[in-house]
Structures are given as structure tokens and as C-alpha cells.
Specification:
Layout (H helix, E strand, L loop, with lengths): L4 H17 L2 E6 L5 H13 L3 E3 L3 H10 L15 E6 L5 H12 L4 E7 L4 E2 L1 H8 L4 H39 L1
Antiparallel strand pairs: 1-3, 1-4, 2-3, 4-5
Helix pairs in contact: 1-3, 4-5
């Protein structure tokens, strides 16, 4: 079914807004996935704060060309039936969601990505991003290290304080 010109303009405007705020946009070929598989993917993506869009590649190129950051971005990888995973909060979440889903569904094949700075990323770079810990995991690790250090200092100081108090009490008894 053909889309009329007004609908195309609206789609491009929506994509423009979505991609302007994106920290990372990962695209993958989805040929061979069932509707139920795509619904499962959308559900998993939603839980991670990622939006899944299935739009014609030509419309994505038009939207990218309207955004200053993406004007010179290489879009030669936008071929075939692609879906786009977009996150405006976490740089690695789209790659992680698609990579995890692709492990269970061989029909989904990562193709590349666009960073929020306008860089075009290869499939290998996307897979490397997917292996990184998420923003929340990194924050948790840093907080854990800081709390561990504070606990170590507190333990050392309380040990010295107990030793000092024991020494004073021995002097007072003598």
C-alpha cells in the first residue's frame, strides 16, 4: 500500500525528532522474523528504554539529511529490510537489546549504527558496544567501589580507635 505525501512528511518529521535526540541508533536486518518475534523484540526494547522503528530506508536517509549532525554520515549500509533501535538515554542499550535478541533469533542480523555525534559504526563496532556494561551497571560498580573504600577506611579507623581506648583503659587501671 502506497503512503501519501502528507503521511511521508509526518513520518520524516517523527524520525527527525527521534534521531535528533538519539544517543545511539542501531539498525538490523529482520527478514524472516515473525510478527510475534517482532512484538517480543519491541517488549524487550521498551523495558530497556529503547524504541524500535520499522521505516523505509529512503525516509531514514531523508530524515538524517535534515539533521545537521548526520548530514555527512555514511548511509550506504541502509539496504534491505531494516529495523531501527533508538535510545535517547543510553548509548549501548540499543546494541545490547538487538544483540541479545539476535542470539535467540538467527533471522535478526546486526548491520551497523549511527552514534549521537553522527559517526557511522560497523557491525563489529556494534557487537563490541553490546558487550559493554550498561550505564546503570557502570554506576553501580562505581558506587560499590566507593562504598567499599569508605567501609575500609571506617574499619581501619575504628580498629585504631579501639586499640587507643584499650591502651587508655589499661593505663587508668594501673
Amino acid at each position: 500500500m502506497a503512503i501519501d505525501k502528507d503521511k511521508k512528511k509526518q513520518l520524516v518529521a517523527d524520525l527527525d525528532n527521534l534521531l535528533s535526540d538519539a544517543k545511539m541508533t542501531v539498525y538490523a536486518q529482520y527478514r524472516g522474523l515473525s510478527v510475534a518475534d517482532l512484538q517480543d523484540l519491541r517488549r524487550a526494547a521498551r523495558a530497556a528504554g529503547v524504541k524500535i522503528k520499522i521505516v523505509k530506508n529512503r525516509l531514514v536517509r531523508v530524515a538524517l539529511n535534515e539533521i545537521a549532525v548526520y548530514k555527512d554520515t555514511d548511509t550506504s549500509g541502509l539496504e534491505g529490510q531494516l529495523l531501527y533501535a533508538v535510545s535517547s538515554e543510553d548509548e549501548v542499550a540499543p546494541a545490547q537489546v538487538l544483540d541479545k535478541f539476535a542470539k535467540d533469533h538467527q533471522a535478526l542480523e546486526l548491520k551497523g549504527a549511527f552514534s549521537g555525534e553522527g559517526a557511522s559504526l560497523s557491525t563489529d563496532e556494534v557487537k563490541a558496544l553490546a558487550k559493554l556494561p550498561s550505564k546503570d551497571q557502570l554506576i553501580g560498580e562505581v558506587v560499590g567501589m566507593l562504598i567499599g573504600t569508605v567501609n575500609d577506611v571506617t574499619s581501619a579507623l575504628s580498629g585504631n580507635l579501639h586499640g587507643l581506648l584499650d591502651g587508655i583503659s589499661e593505663k587508668a587501671e594501673a
